[in-house]
Amino acid sequence: MSIFSGIWVPLITPFADGEVDHAALRALVRRYADAGVAGLVALGTTGEPAALDDAEQDAVLATILDEARAAAHSAHSTHSADAPALPVLVGVSGNHTASMKERIEQLNALPIAGVLMAAPYYIRPSQAGIVGHFMALADASDKPVVLYDIPYRTGVRLELDTLLTLAAHPRIQAVKDCAGSLDTTLALIRDGRLQVLTGEDINIFNTLCLGGSGAIAASAHLRPERFVALYRALSAGQLDEGRRIFHELAPLIQALFAEPNPAPVKALLAAQGLIRDELRMPMTRAGDALVARLRELVGLDRTETHVAA
């Protein structure tokens, strides 16, 4: 059975004075492991991979994998190399099939849970071209593949027939669903071959109630234990409890996407002293009014520092 269920956190990349802050990154991995999340996504959109050079991407992934293994050792009270690591899914993006294939072949050697891949951006290929692209990449991968349907970033959506065609490939096991189509979401869940992880955080409750497998949720950087509790309640059929938790989280989810992701997430993590509030251009920090609103939502004292020591 596929592992792609539960709450997955698409990790931000913390910076300090313009460089990747690997100590803060390790602390975040441990924080989410302790919260009981099902897995982590490295180098997804939330991690600003377009702003990282190849060496930085490799270093970020190495840190996440190392700490995911260490967190698993701690959780199992053992230092055995056989302890299962917290699963890590790796984002692979681009619009050049051959280059992406080379990257996937490099990743085959690493202990990752799979690769997350969106449709080729900007060039707007036909659906036949999308099928050929993903089939070629899935053929090259030794790991499971999670499709990423996010047309407002790529400029092209994965049509339902395309997704159902791709579901026949043995390594294509799940989809991160950001298309905003209830018909497609329901059809994929009813088909049953792909696990459906919502990538639109406000749709977590809906998707889980329909029978989806979980979420890749940037907002789960904050209050991760409550997102895990939401998933567990709904998985156990505790609809009233799940609804109560979701209504508690909904204002925070909405505020975290009031400005481009991951700026609001980073602002609130910085307000909690976990990272520096730094992004790389062309991304910019969240506005003061939104930061104040976010701090209010999580009950932070306005006199606290916004920057980690």
Overview of the structural elements:
The chain is of the alpha/beta class and 309 residues long. The protein has 2 domains: 6-236, Alpha-Beta Barrel (TIM Barrel), CATH 3.20.20; 258-309, no CATH class. Helices cover 45% and strands 13% of the residues. It has helices at residues 22-35, 54-75, 97-107, 127-140, 151-154, 160-166, 182-191, 204-210, 224-235, 239-256, 263-271, 288-297; strands at 6-10, 15-16, 19-20, 39-42, 88-91, 114-118, 145-149, 172-177, 195-198, 214-216. The strands form 2 sheets. An 8-stranded parallel β-barrel has the order 1-4-5-6-7-8-9-10, surrounded by 5 helices. A two-stranded antiparallel sheet has the order 2-3. Strand 2 (15-16) and strand 3 form a beta hairpin. The longest helix has 22 residues, at 54-75. The relative contact order is 0.13. The model is unreliable at 303-309 (pLDDT under 50). Its EC number is 4.3.3.7. The record marks 45, 122 as: Part of a proton relay during catalysis. Keywords: Amino-acid biosynthesis, Cytoplasm, Diaminopimelate biosynthesis, Lyase, Lysine biosynthesis, Schiff base. Homotetramer; dimer of dimers. This is 4-hydroxy-tetrahydrodipicolinate synthase.
